[in-house]
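A common beginner's mistake is to predict each chain separately and then try to dock the pieces by hand. The better habit, illustrated here, is to supply every component at once so that their relative placement is modeled jointly.
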Amino acid sequence: MTALIVHGGAWAIPDNEVTAHRTGCAAALEAGWAVLEAGGSALEAVEAAVRVLENDPTFDAGVGSFLNAAGEVELDAAMMDGSTMLAGAVAAVQHIRHPITLARRVLDSDYILLVGAGAERFAEEQGVELCASDDLVVERERQRWAAQRAKPDFRGRDAFHTAHDTVGAVALDAHGNLAAATSTGGIPNKLPGRVGDSPLIGSGLYADNETGGCSTTGWGESIMKVVLAKTVTDRLRDGEHPLDAAKVGIEYLGRRVNGLGGCIVLDRAGRVGWAHNTPRMAFGYRTHDTPPVIAIDQAELA
Ligand code: ASP
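With all components supplied together, the output reads:
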């Protein structure tokens, strides 16, 4: 039994960006699925899927990420293995082409979370691909940055109406192992050093073979308060359907902390779930008995 679900952010994705979001999610799904089909692990599958999304400038991860207030890209990423409960994360890193691969190296080390310059030094030691800051910056984001500098009262929550494209994946492999991964450039115009939910185990992602896996996206300052990924996966323990668990988690996020976001979920039986309280969320999934599905609106599949 195998299953894979990916997402490319939850916000008011405008009509003219729908195709790019669909195409990106479809490519990520294909890359991750190829790994699972070849007998690869869930961890390998989520890494492969997220690398595709980090390469795609459509999304706020890797190339194309939002710029911080200093006009620089700072990236957060994490992954978790539900069989071993090992986790690896990096936060506020620069010059890293694929932060999810660096997170994977951290997962294989004695540590869970490395930040800033130390994480970059670790990347060098590990032979993880480095890049120049500018290699991750696209013109669209230079323009967004310039426009936001002109609006000093811009707040993080406002970003969810303009743009929000963190990426993530959750997989179940043929051995029954679950893994989850999340990667992001954070929110536009964030203070340098700001870290959101995405690299935090339990908030931006979670995976446990005893329950399920989840990757989240949305306003990090709200997601962290409700530890969203753990809140959602805990509900799977007694057999709740992932669609219901996701719905309850997102409802709690909205009601309790006025939060905004979305999540994708798999349980240990490979059943899929998702929910968002933003106007749209880009996601796609495939299982051993379901052909690829790519969606932008919850209403499309509800
Ligand atoms: N959750 C991410 C953050 O707050 C952003 C996103 O999901 O797009 O950093």
